[in-house]
UniProtKB/TrEMBL annotation:
Keywords carried by this UniProt record: Membrane, Transmembrane, Transmembrane helix
Transmembrane parts of this sequence: 46-63, 75-95
Matching InterPro entries: DUF1003
Region (Disordered) location: 156-181
Pfam families documented for this protein: DUF1003
Protein name per Swiss-Prot or TrEMBL: DUF1003 domain-containing protein
Length: 181
């Protein structure tokens, strides 16, 4: 008998237990946060607040007494703050764009499938219309029947004018009377 603890070659190994557990995050929740952050950064409200923040920073560090200033003229600390903000904003915006791209792919695939179904439906309807046209071409139309009946009525009237008025037409199955010539 084989030992049940012995590793088999046809089954994958169990993952190793980690000593320090990695933090888990809900990727969808983080993606929603990234999208809302990217949406907010693309608004006039964000630009107005950022402009007011930078203007206040510069004004304080230029106009305040020297002992109260915390960032001197080259505004190194302001540059660091803006760089830090940009370093966090860029990946969040890229994440939001990637999520939007995935949604766009799904929508494009659904549109492609809908277009393919519509195309197949149109081809089917075109074939049906063609078969109906062929069928209608073989059927006598109302105008055709009217013209044929008018022609027959004209023939009957002409035959009636040719017959003398005193003779009655023979009944079916009866021989026609012979003329005395």
């Amino acid at each position: 008998m084989s030992d049940s603890r012995r590793e088999r070659l046809d089954t994958p190994r169990d993952t190793r237990r980690q000593i320090v557990r990695r933090p888990t995050m809900d990727a969808d929740a983080f993606g929603v946060f990234a999208e809302s952050f990217a949406r907010y950064m693309g608004t006039a409200k964000f630009l107005l607040w950022m402009t007011l923040f930078v203007a206040a920073w510069v004004a304080w560090n230029v106009l305040a007494p020297r002992e109260l200033r915390f960032d001197s003229f080259p505004f190194i600390f302001l540059t660091l703050m803006l760089s830090l903000q940009a370093s966090y904003a860029a990946p969040l915006i890229l994440l939001a764009q990637n999520r939007q791209e995935q949604r766009d792919k799904v929508v494009a695939e659904q549109d492609r499938q809908a277009n393919a179904r519509a195309h197949a439906d149109m081809e089917f309807l075109a074939r049906e219309v063609a078969s109906l046209r062929m069928s209608v071409g073989e059927v006598a139309t109302r105008d055709f029947l009217r013209s044929e009946l008018r022609g027959l009525l004209g023939d009957i009237e002409e035959l009636q004018r040719q017959e003398p008025a005193d003779e009655t037409p023979p009944t079916p199955g009866e021989p026609a009377p012979r003329s005395a010539t």
